[in-house]
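Please check this record.
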Amino acid sequence: MSDDNIIHFNPWRDFNDAPPLPDPFAVEPDASQIARFIDVVFGYSEGLIPVRGFVDKGQGKDGRPHNIWIEADARAPEKLATFAGWAAREGAAVYVIPGTVAETGQARAADVMQMQSLVVDLDSGDIPAKLDHLVHHLGRPTLIIESGGRTLEGVTKLHVWWQLTEPAEGADLAMLCQLRGEIALKVGGDTHFRSAHQPIRVPGTVYHKGGLTRLVQIREATGMEVDLPEMAERVADMPPMPGVGMGTAEPRQKPAIDDVLVTPVHEGGTDDWSRFEGASAAIGYFLRLVHEGRMSMDEGWTAICGYNAAMLRPSWPLDRLKRETNRLWELHIKRHGPPLLRLDSAITAPADLPTFSLGALLDDTSPMPEDIIGPRVLTPGGLLVLGGAPKVGKSDFLISWLVHMAAGVPFLGFTPPRPLRVFYLQAEIQYHYLRERMQQIALPVTVIAAARDTFIATPKLRLLLDAKGVARVAEAIRAAFPDAPPDIIVIDPIRNLFDGGPDGGGENENAAMMFFLKDRVESLREAINPEAGVILAHHTRKATRQQVKDDPFLALSGASALRGFYTTGLLMHLPDEDSTVRRLEIELRNGPALLGKLIDKVKGEWVELNPMNERLVRKEAGAKLDAERLRKGDVILTILHEEAAAGRLYTTTQFGEAFENKAGLGSKYTIRDRIGVLTTKGQIKFLRDGRPFGMAVVRSRFGYLVVEDMRFGTETQIDPDTGEVLGEGQPVLPSHYKCASTGACLQVENPAIWVHPEGLDD
């Protein structure tokens, strides 16, 4: 791809403004399917989505490719739907590279930063049998898409997608592409998808090949997600289909372990076996020795790390190596039962446990320890867990909160006793993107100045919080705060640093979670400052809004032991998908209950909203009714203007009877109620004496209805003294108004000045 054939899509390039002729048989793009596809393929990713538009063959048309790059954010479905509309009119197909890149113009395999889905293209042979084979061995896919094409036998071609639980990048991205190629070989799919930059059609767009138009459409959507290591295991265990692709070749022999342990293996599949195959074989070998008691767990892990450093070129990151080791250990235990672990040292006797009598507790009236963050949100030695779904704004909120605490400034009702020393250990955002985020967050200048030296953050780290990781982090914290230890230690997120211990458990296991909290998090705190508060950022599992409403903290991902361990839980979620307002649920163990908070970003800053203004039930229906009431009010004001220009004035009763069931205003009683509201808000006032306009003097409680800038008739008005043209129609000025407090009819002080009651303009 060169700069010559990169054209940035702009709908204003099309100068043909003749209205298109309607085609009753035209196939239109489906924005809802496009949005569903974007969520599955890019919903967790960051960066730019490369989009390509090609004129489909067989239409007798010729055209250059159109390429655009759109941000993988909430507006991506809308932008892609706009592009799809243009493409449908031009006879062009819409493709995306199913991964994100960093900059506009990038579209090579080496440019792809993240991918969050695995795809296989079934475009030939017995496609239903291939699909059954995939489902049987790999599980139900997230999406099954009819790509628009047909085989020679008339069978619909399919794209089959599995969504990952998190984006793959770096070494994981290379493994994902390898899996795409291996799946294609085993079922006879399109092997071009071994390359990260292979484009694919977007569902909800129009297929035009051969002059036939069809909608590329989603046949099935399950919402299923899968971990990449788990999918790698399934793919490795899946046999090739007989007579298809690699299934016709000789069965591949697994390499001997003696060869694996002494043979370097390189990236890119240039050797007899891949790095993944070599690492899996070596890890499995050493874990078997640990399981049989011939090695201790520490010795086994040291041997695995040694193989990784010596034989994998380049070596795997330690976090990936640890995840694969944990996965294979769990699998080995399932197949072979509990391990016979060898103990390297005797278990030390526990220290004496502190105990207190009832009398001692009642007699101790010493002052309570000072909160690290009040009121009782984070106490000395306490543990706070902040949970939230991806992209709900959790990290942005956490950074703003921590900077305020480091400056000693209250934030959304959370109060520090003084400027706090904060160490932010984060494992998600790389350095350049971290500094960009810090610079984009709107913070008061005084807060930034006060927190410049007391808030310390790390860039994205590639380590596990195991024994060595705890030692490294402790050393970094001491170097960052040489004079005094930090008040708050933050770990963001748990998932990227999790160590399940010698049993290799995952974060969904209670034993592994307790090991991480007690032997890793607590050990780190004890090594730095036993009185420090710890904040853990954590993801949530997929749950319905009703489930989150019923018990918010059940949505926290992973083992339930986490909820029983923390002293404070905060959970951020979006109660309404059509609103940016987040709800912050609060659960305290060391203090009285705190009500949840409604928070949002206004002009870049987090603010707390008044919950009294929040509608609690039937929000969508209520919003529609609100809009309808506003519409009726606007219609009434407009009609009064127009009727006065036509030479007609009305009392409330006359107006209701004259315009009943007109302009969607409803009955005369409904109209009277709306007018009553408008008069209380000062948008309608009254005129008692209608004689200047050929009308009678009204003896009723109020009078003729008058609105601001109302003019009677259309005759041009000229000032007799100056000759100035004053406008069309005679001004209609009010003589009385309705008191907003008492409802009484009071006389207007100055008819020429229209006064609105304070606070009731809306």
Summary: DSSP finds 21 helices and 28 strands in the chain. The chain has a mean pLDDT of 84.
